[in-house]
Amino acid sequence: MFENIFFNTMYLFEWNNEEGIIFIMLDKLKTKKFWECALSRCIRTVCQTALATISTGALITDVNWITVVSSSAVAGIVSILMSIVTGIPECKINE
Fold first, then answer.
1. 4 and 46: one domain?
2. How far apart are CA 76 and CA 65, in angstroms?
């Protein structure tokens, strides 16, 4: 499965298979702009998930608030992890 794994100051890992190579750049994790963009994306994702979950209740009293909070929190965590792994296309880090 993992043909080549290495650690150095530039990359966290390399995963090489038939589909391609995935690099996680450590340099981008050190920039303030990356974390601003990742946090902005995370907040939007949490709000969208909360609104979608709240809208499943017919009345405000029918909303399961534990489900709203937990699903929104998980969506936020996944958003941050996806930003780290795949990057943030709407944010140009090098500018």
1. no
2. 16
Do residues 66 and 95 share a domain?
A: yes
CB pairs under 8 A, 24+ apart, for 5-13?
A: none
Helix axes 32-54, 65-86, angle to 10 degrees: 150
- The whole-model pTM stands at 0.69
Give the type of residue at 19. E
Q: What is the mean pLDDT of each run of 10 residues along the chain (95 residues)?
A: 44 52 65 90 96 86 91 96 84 64
User: Residue 34 corresponds to which tokens in the numbers above?
Assistant: 């990356």
Do 44 and 82 have their domain in common? yes
Does an H or E element contain 6, and which? none
In this structure, the answer to whether residues 69 and 82 fall within a common structural domain is yes
Domain limits at 7?
1-27
